[in-house]
Write a sequence for this structure.
């Protein structure tokens, strides 16, 4: 299957700072990437859909000014958590849609964010 | 409203036991169905998927799932589990965007 990487895997930051998370498709081009958030012992909640070369589409209740998404190339999408607060601490997971396999999404390993 | 239900939140089995994890969905229109597995400390991996055709889908590692349209179900099965199958299993439904179930934690006792 296709491979998706995320960087960093762990990040600890102070409240009020911004954190950037990268999501890369390593062996395929992804016109669409997705960003999810996973709370402990809960399912994945879709935050936004990132399309290469256009603005991201955010799910209801997700602050677009808080979670900035940029999809600058066919292999890279970034999520920036701006002015992070402790309640933003979570596990963020990206996925990339491999167009060669219909609507199949391949997932990155996730980034654990802890805001102090 | 679109939703996915996984009824079993925690399942404990002994090795060689048979496994069936339930997944029911509510979704309008054409539906694609997926099962993903998340091993401890690892990322989500695709087990199997259904788009169309034969409703009995075979995936990796001996897993299979059956799509029953009349029951809006896509249950995951494995005839004989191994200790290495200990993981969390997620059912997902969607065409462009996915809706995930809450997951089922499976623990297989050696």
């Amino acid at each position: 299957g296709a491979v998706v990487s995320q960087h960093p895997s762990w990040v600890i930051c102070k409240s009020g700072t911004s954190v950037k998370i990268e999501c890369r498709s390593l062996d395929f081009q992804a016109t669409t990437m997705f960003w999810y958030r996973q709370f402990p012992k809960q399912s994945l909640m879709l935050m936004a859909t990132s399309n290469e070369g256009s603005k991201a589409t955010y799910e209801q209740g997700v602050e677009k000014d808080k979670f900035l998404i940029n999809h600058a190339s066919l292999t890279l999408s970034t999520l920036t958590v701006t002015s992070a607060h402790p309640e933003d601490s979570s596990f963020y997971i990206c996925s990339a849609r491999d167009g060669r396999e219909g609507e199949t999404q391949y997932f990155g390993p996730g980034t654990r964010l802890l805001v102090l | 409203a679109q939703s996915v239900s996984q009824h079993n939140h925690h399942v404990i089995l002994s090795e060689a036991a048979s496994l069936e994890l339930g997944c029911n969905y509510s979704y309008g229109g054409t539906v694609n169905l997926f099962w993903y597995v998340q091993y401890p400390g690892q990322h989500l991996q695709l087990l199997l998927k259904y788009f169309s055709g034969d409703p009995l889908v075979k995936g990796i590692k001996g897993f299979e799932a059956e799509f029953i349209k009349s029951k809006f179900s896509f249950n995951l099965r494995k005839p004989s589990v191994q200790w290495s199958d200990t993981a969390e299993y997620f059912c997902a439904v969607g065409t462009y965007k996915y809706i995930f179930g809450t997951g089922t934690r499976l623990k297989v006792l050696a």
In short: The two ends of chain A are 37 Å apart (CA to CA). The mean pLDDT of chain A is 92. Residues 90 and 113 of chain A are 5 Å apart (CA to CA).
